[in-house]
Amino acid sequence: MKHNGDGSTTCVRRLNRFARTGCDTGLSRVIAILGVALIVAGSAFTLSGCRASSGGDATAGAHQAKYHCPMHPTVVSDTPGDCPICGMKLVPIEPTAAPAPAPATTPAPRRILFYRSPMDPAVHSDKPAKDSMGMDFVPVYDDEAGRSSGPAVSGRAEVNLTPERRSLLGVRSEDVRQMHIEKSLRTVGRVAPDERRLAHVHTKFEGYVEHLYVDFTGKLVTKGDPLLSIYSAELVATQQEYLLALRVQKQLGNSQIPSVAQGGAGLLDAARERLRLWDIRAEDIAELERTGTVRRTFDLYAEVTGYVVVKNVVHGMRVMPADTLFELADLSRVWVLADVYESDLPTVRLGMPADVTLSYQPGRTWRGTVANVAPTVDEKTRSVKVRIDVDNAGGALKPDMYADVQLRTDMGTGLVVPDSAIIDTGDRKLVFLDHPDGSIEPREIEVGVRIPEGYQVVRGLAKGDRVVTAANFLLDSESSLKSALAAFTATSAPAPVKR
Fold this sequence. Notes:
Elements: H1 7-20, H2 25-62, E1 67-68, E2 76-77, E3 91-92, E4 112-116, E5 124-125, E6 138-141, E7 159-160, H3 163-169, E8 172-175, E9 177-193, E10 198-201, E11 207-212, E12 220-221, E13 226-231, H4 233-252, H5 258-277, H6 282-291, E14 297-301, E15 306-311, E16 318-319, E17 326-329, E18 333-341, E19 353-357, E20 365-373, E21 383-391, E22 402-417, E23 423-424, E24 429-434, E25 439-451, E26 454-459, E27 466-470, H7 472-490
């Protein structure tokens, strides 16, 4: 009899056929016994083959490839697919070498504190559960909740990173520097004449311009130079009165009556004083006494040295005492009116040095000092006028020029951190200290002025501290999450899970 996969069935069929042929009973019993034996042997063979096949499949399954999420390593599957948390494609898990022999002392197993939702860390449970989307809660172990030592920053926790994670995140750090701090404030200014060196030219009597010596605006005049020649009927009459008083004084000066002699001298003094009050020079009065001739015109002289910035008079013009004939400006010293924003006013002080430069004259700098700070703020520009007195002996700075201004304030010696090390949360400023043991600690600081090298540190750091300058925002997110997890563990009873 040939054996195949269904040998037992064939045997049964042949036995049934033999029984129907009507053989004798004894022979039938022998044949039946032999058939049963064959059926038992075939069944045993079949079962052994099944066991062998089952064992081979189990061995193959043990070495079957596994898949996991690159963003959530805890998500593992036997078949390719998508991550139930983030939706990314699952990637094969690379086979790893045989683990090294375990040390003599096996570390204690990690203890699960609670389970949290993979989408919302604020939702947690004390036992495995699923969120509203059907995702499994992930376990949070005791070494992941974060620990704080010393004075902690509210809402932040210490972060520990391995060298591999540091390299992956690009964490870099620098030492807190102690250096000389000089606050530099750059702004723009406008050149203006020194108001204390302006002069208006008026006559103190009515008259007519007979001749102009200064006939254009911008001319430089020196103190004592003639400006114009003027005729005045009042001035002619006063000269005549003076000459008459002079003759009377000569006639009555030798009188034996004291009152008469004093009367003649008083009349002469009054006429001389009137000429002096009209700005007639003493040498012109002396010439009038010597010649005894009334002059038709008198010259008007400059009382200061400066440039003619305003000219309101022409030849033949009638002038009155209220008329401004000329305006002279001494530009040997000028003002630079710089615009300083109100936020920068605390760094501006009287007497502080200032440098004035012109963009079209590189390499040349005018030194000056802050002489005045305006008491009001411009409501449109929110700036304050700061007056700087500058020596302008060469006359290069002219009124209404625009200039670049740099104000320098010596702040002494202090600690400075780079701009990139500071995280501004709005109500406070944070940095992360990089400790030698690899831990990264959040620290709240108070900053002062800003300089090109960074910010002045008023409180919160010490010399020798090392602060993180790159990947700060990633560390801030990690620190915030660890602080939140630590707060969850501090609660006596976890919040119930909403299903």
